[in-house]
Amino acid sequence: MELLLAQSVIEPGLTHFLVVSAILFSLGVMAVLSRRNTIMVLMGVELILNSANINFIAFSRFTELSLDGQMIALFVIIIAAAEAAVALAIVLNVYNRFKTINLDDISLLKG
Q: I want to staple 12 with a disulfide (CB 3.0 to 4.6 A). Which of 6, 16, 21, 58 is the partner?
């Protein structure tokens, strides 16, 4: 009985990771293009970066890249953390000046 259960377990392959990554990337692009709230746009950018990380780690696992993909993913995480800190500081300054974080309402920055 245990042998049958062990054989029926499906291990996720490269295709599974790529599908999850494509779904995350699509959701991130949709959030960036459709949302007008600055925080939601930043969350969409984070989804896009996380989908890239899944690709790096999946290709590192299923090809001969060994730890290269994982190291690149670590650098992407570090850059994303720095980007989030700087972007949130900018959002706070914009909110203090315009009293809104809606991207459509902030038209004075254009010129």
A: 16
Q: Which of 55, 49, 45, 46 is nearest to 21 (CA)?
A: 55
Alpha helix (H) ranges present in the chain?
2-7, 14-34, 38-62, 68-98
Just give the CATH number of 13-98.
1.10.287.3510
The span from the CA of 107 to the CA of 111, in Å, is: 8
The predicted structure's pLDDT at residue 82: 93
Write down the pTM of the prediction. Answer: 0.79
Using alpha carbons, select from 71, 29, 80 the residue that is nearest to residue 50: 80
pLDDT, average across residues 101-105: 78
